[in-house]
Amino acid sequence: MRAGTAAVGRQTRPKAGRFDQVSIALHWLTLLLVAAQFATALTLIGGGEDSPDAGLLLAIHRSTGLATWLVVIGRLVWRAAFAHLPPFPTGMPRLQQRVAKANEYGLYALLVLQPLTGLGDTVLRGHPFVLFGLAVPRLVYPYKPGFHALHAAHELGAVALALLIGLHAGAALFHALVRRDGVVERMLPWTPPDR
Fold first, then answer.
1. Global pTM value
2. What is the pLDDT of residue 85?
3. Could you give the C-alpha distances from 55 to 23, 35, 178, in angstroms and in order?
């Protein structure tokens, strides 16, 4: 009797639905690229821009930044035209839904803007640089007010991005460990698709 009741409870539990496979793949690819961004940035901060590896780290940071921007633009195009966006679970409070949406839009905005402020900072320094292993010549003469402003914006954006990622990860843990409402499973690549 108990087993039957438990089975019925599992069947009637509301499901969060699943994102499509392309959205899931782009989500995790974005995570890997952003992790590379933070790893190279923190290594540069720890070792200083005058360290022997600084040039290589900057090249990796800039290249993964541009790759992140391209992936995020691809995500936004896919999301607008083709993606399956499952609704929130029915039991999720409205305020929590609004916070989740605001966090999502904030993440997208920063993931688009961060690479642009970083690239602008690099270009306005007026030096050649390396991108995807290719030497890019100086594009403009140095413009100190511009690159200082963009550098400051890039650093502030990194802090804001880290905070929003922390909120996103914390919410995922809350849904996985406390609510257990299937929200996390809808973005996991190994979860079986909805039938």
1. 0.86
2. 93
3. 34, 19, 45
